[in-house]
Amino acid sequence: MTYEHLSAMAVFARVVEEGSFSHAARGLGLSKSAVSKQVGRLEDRLGVRLLNRTTRQLSLTEAGTAFYEHCRQLVADAEAAESAVTHLAAAPRGTLRVNAPMSFGQLHVAPALPEFLAAYPELSVEMQLSDRTVDLIEEGFDLAIRIGQLRDSSLIARRLAPLRQVLCAAPSYLAAQGRPEHPHDLKDHECLIYSYLSWGREWRFQGVDGELRVPIRGRLEINNGDALLAAARQGFGIVMLPSFLGADDLKAGRLEPLLQDWCEPAAGGIHAVFPASRNLSPKVRVFVDYLARRFAGQPYWEVEQAETAV
């Protein structure tokens, strides 16, 4: 791929974002004809039409929509690379506004903040814990921690750690109700349901024949993982929890893992997400880098469970 081709991709992305050749040309410091020619040569190279042109407006074709996402990411990556270099000497300062899910934020982000802030005396952190998906730009957050599948393609994401689900129950529940030997046995059990589960009232498992989706039933549905964990500890039912939440209880024997031969499919991972920007701020960069180092490789909560199993 030549430099000219990469440049044309950046020009095309700017045209899409500005909504016209003339606006893009002014922003890029080029003539309108030069911008139009670059997009035209790009379409010729690809052999497809990227834009529908009328006298009043531009609109993306199906191919153009798909191609724009890659161009946008390319530009964002290039800007991030430049920003990483130009901000090396800049000391992070100001207030960093962070949103994180309730359980993960309380257990694994908040405990990391004192060490992080000690390293950056001119920086302060304002963290909001919530299990709802916030609008970063509308609500003024610099970044958010997201668990599971990512949906908002307008955000830049950096993977911090894998996500593993664990099916478990208290020994008292298993003594009274029995231990399921197969996912289909769950139909006869009281299941504790997480309200924000993206696929509704079913749990997913992975067996030798592929994915298995099992409908579940239960009288208790809660929109918070800690509350579900508390109910499971009391022996009220079987719960599907992320390993980062259930690690201590599994290690202590307050909960027992179930159906370990049926691993729940990967659910996207744990990511830091932040708005695409021409200049990633030093405060966002250093915080994301810090979390990535803290959770690098096999996260500490997974290591603790592995040592317990041994």
From TrEMBL:
InterPro entries linked to this entry: LysR-type_TF_proteobact-type, LysR_HTH_N, LysR_subst-bd, WH-like_DNA-bd_sf, WH_DNA-bd_sf
One biological process term in Gene Ontology: DNA-templated transcription
Transcription recorded as keyword: yes
Domain HTH lysR-type residue range list: 1-61
Pfam families referenced in this protein's UniProt entry, alphabetically: HTH_1 (PF00126), LysR_substrate (PF03466)
GO molecular function ontology, one term from the record: sequence-specific DNA binding
Keyword presence, Transcription: yes
Entry keywords, A to Z: DNA-binding, Transcription, Transcription regulation
Family to which the UniProt record says this protein belongs: Belongs to the LysR transcriptional regulatory family.
Protein name as it appears in the record: LysR family transcriptional regulator
